[in-house]
Amino acid sequence: MSADESKSVEASSSAKAAAKGTADSIKSFISGGFGGVAAVLVGHPFDLTKTRLQTAKAGQYTGAIDVVKKALAVDGVTGLYRGVVPPLLGVTPIFALSFWAYDVSQKLIRTITPNRTSQTLSTAELAAAGFLSAVPTTLVTAPVERAKVLLQVQGQGSEKKYKGVIDVIRVLYREGGLPSIFRGSVATIMRDGPGSAAYFAAYEVVKKALTPKGADPSQLNLGAIIVAGGSAGVAMWSIAIPPDVIKSRIQSAPNGTYSGFLDCARKTIAADGVKALWKGFGPAMARAFPANAATFLGVEASRKLLDGFF
């Protein structure tokens, strides 16, 4: 083979690799959106219960079951889906960005470690990729969570100030501009950075452990996906509740209540003790397994479908 032919082959291989990388990123983006929709449909009632426990005045509820009973008494079954529109509208970009960023982060780690003996990432590297995936996602997650929390909280006895998600954004912008809409962004990254690290690492590790010897973990195995996805959710929420409590309080409180993440943490502990940082733990953990099993089923099934197209 001549030098020119060799260069042509190398160029063709590089072009094919680049095209494959782009296709993989697109598929990660789309499948992440499908996974997010599945997560919201399964998990929103649990999330509403968690948020109300975290933000309610002392003594307003006796526990998670009491929250559910009172929501049903006031609004019926639809009350359990109060505030569902913001996550449904935001879930596609949030989860799409998350899974896309996770895919890109894995490629980045391989790029900066060119002398590695295996293309398979270690558990620590998977966790690092998961943490990095939370950074761009926060740009969408923070305002969506802000709107969702305000809509969820106003159904527990406070004045119904907002008519819907568009009204929330409009009012927040009028009252405080973009800073008001993005309030709680620091708390969001404090929750989602470590949480995503545990999330993706746990999924990959558990799925690999449950895959039969000699089989490819990337192939669709419903049992392994359900258990690994559920385990990923449990791993994430086992460490994400304290910053989530602070995030919910910052995003639901009147202007000027807290000066920031640390101020909210200090005032929360001073008023209600350290145990207040674990409010909503029960509903969050109850939601974690089914919602995230649904997430990864949606991701893996849609990814397999997309692989058949390009």
TrEMBL record:
It is a multi-pass membrane protein. Keywords: Membrane, Mitochondrion, Repeat, Transmembrane, Transmembrane helix, Transport. One of its GO terms (cellular component) is mitochondrial membrane. It is found in: Mitochondrion membrane. Solcar repeats lie at residues 23-108, 121-209, 220-305. GO terms for biological process: carnitine transmembrane transport; mitochondrial transport. The keyword Zinc does not apply. Pfam families: Mito_carr. GO terms for molecular function: O-acyl-L-carnitine transmembrane transporter activity. The keyword Nuclease does not apply. Its main location: mitochondrion. Belongs to the mitochondrial carrier (TC 2.A.29) family. This is Mitochondrial carrier. It comes from Sphaerobolus stellatus (strain SS14).
